[in-house]
Specification:
By secondary structure, the chain is mainly alpha-helical. It has seven helices and three strands. The radius of gyration is 20 Å and the shape is globular. 14% of the residues are buried.
C-alpha cells in the first residue's frame, strides 16, 4: 500500500537507530537543562551544574554521554573543559521538543476517571 505512494520514503536503519539514541539521551530532564544552557553559549561543568541544579560529577557524566552522541562538543583550556551544543540541529531538536511540551493538550492525555472518582468517593 505505502509503496504505491509516489513520495513515500522511510529512513534507513542507521538513521532510525541514531535518531532513537539521540531521543533516548534527551529523555533525562537534567540533560535537557544542560543542553538548553549550552544553546545560550559555552559553559564549564561547574556553571552547568549550578544551572541544572545537579552535582558536578553527575553533569560530567551527562556531558560525556551527550558528547559521545555528538550532541555537545568540548574545548580544553588548560585544566578546564568548556562545552557547547554541537550544532544548529541540536537547537532545533530541543526547541521543537520544548515547543511540543508547551502545546500538548493535557485533556487528551489525562486518564479516564474511575467509577469511584466519578461518584465522588
Amino acid at each position: 500500500m505505502h509503496t504505491s505512494l509516489p513520495d513515500f520514503d522511510m529512513p534507513n536503519e542507521e538513521q532510525v537507530h541514531l535518531a532513537a539514541e539521540s531521543f533516548r539521551l534527551l529523555s533525562d530532564p537534567t540533560r535537557i537543562k544542560i543542553l538548553w544552557a549550552l544553546l545560550q553559549g559555552e559553559s564549564s561543568v561547574a556553571c552547568l551544574a549550578e544551572l541544572a541544579d545537579a552535582a558536578p560529577t553527575a553533569v560530567s557524566q551527562h556531558l560525556a554521554k551527550l558528547r559521545l552522541a555528538g550532541l555537545v562538543k568540548g574545548r580544553r583550556e588548560g585544566t578546564f573543559v568548556y562545552y557547547t551544543a554541537a550544532d544548529e540541529h541540536v537547537r532545533r531538536l530541543l526547541t521543537q521538543g520544548l515547543y511540543h511540551a508547551d502545546h500538548i493538550d493535557r485533556a487528551d492525555q489525562a486518564p479516564a476517571p474511575t467509577a469511584d472518582a466519578a461518584s465522588g468517593l
